[in-house]
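thread from #wetlab-drylab

HS: before we spend reagent money on co-crystallization trials with A1CAB, can we at least see a predicted complex? here's what I'd submit
DV: go for it
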Amino acid sequence: MLTIGFIGAGHMAQAMIKGWRDLAEVRQIVYAPNSGAAVAEQLQIEAVASIEETFMQSDLLILAMPPKALAEVAPTLQMLLMLAPQKIITSVLGGVSISSLQAALGSQAQIVRTLPNVNVAEKEGYTAIAFAGTLDAATRGAVFGLFTYFGRADELPEEQFGAISALAGSGPAFVAAFVNALSAAAVAQGIESEVADKVALQMVNGTMKVLSKHEQTPTEFAHSVMTPGGSTAAGWSTLESEGFAKTIAKTIAATMQKNSEFD
Ligand SMILES: NC(=O)C1=CN([C@@H]2O[C@H](COP(=O)(O)OP(=O)(O)OC[C@H]3O[C@@H](n4cnc5c(N)ncnc54)[C@H](OP(=O)(O)O)[C@@H]3O)[C@@H](O)[C@H]2O)C=CC1
Ligand SMILES: O=C(O)[C@@H]1CCC=N1
């Protein structure tokens, strides 16, 4: 039995717990100062009462608290790592590099830096992974296997984590905003909100399935929808003249800027 212990029981931890919950031979435990017990009860896993207990019981410890909480949690972990230096510490902390984690926890700490997204809850996630030099090949393979269980995972250079975090980590929020904007626009044209939500979701789901077949690029696909001289082209031209792509580029840049401030 492999025990995975979470420090932090928020949105990201909960998504991972859901994504892994049907894994045979895996037990999940969670610690969070305020919400740990309630989240554990809701997800039918075990709550533990302290960082120390989480560490001692875990084979794989996941740091899933906000980046700024690292300074608070690190002294306890650093002490525990002196007793058990081989413990694997997997961080999901956005923007926090392996060298910062090692500065906080000890230079020999067995650290995996990951950047998953909340879609792991439905096994449709994306995770970027980087390993500290201290990790051996067998451990890297085992951790990689866990993350591919709930979606796609790639080992990437840490320099790429800022852009990937904006694209894949924050991206689900931006896609949800787009779905919401489509639905709201339809409501403004007289469609009932429940119907508009349902239609927008079905349309986006269907579009993603078709695009995922990679038979056309997104631009080729868009042009296949635009009947020459038709209505889609009129809408497309407004999308362009109103600066849709520029807004998205600015959104990604602002996300990356904030992310870079956590290290
Ligand atoms: N949400 C996302 O889509 C993604 C998040 N991440 C990363 O995941 C981490 C958590 O984010 P998210 O789940 O969104 O945040 P939430 O605010 O939803 O959850 C934060 C959790 O951390 C706990 N926490 C806060 N301070 C401490 C502390 N000092 N010791 C132990 N636990 C603490 C909170 O406990 P309590 O509830 O008891 O107060 C809470 O359970 C962040 O580092 C973020 O960058 C990475 C990729 C995607
Ligand atoms: O908003 C955040 O900072 C985290 C990182 C990626 C998604 N959520």
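DV: The beta strands are 2-7, 26-31, 46-47, 60-63, 88-91, 110-115, 125-131, 151-155.
HS: ok that's useful, forwarding to the group
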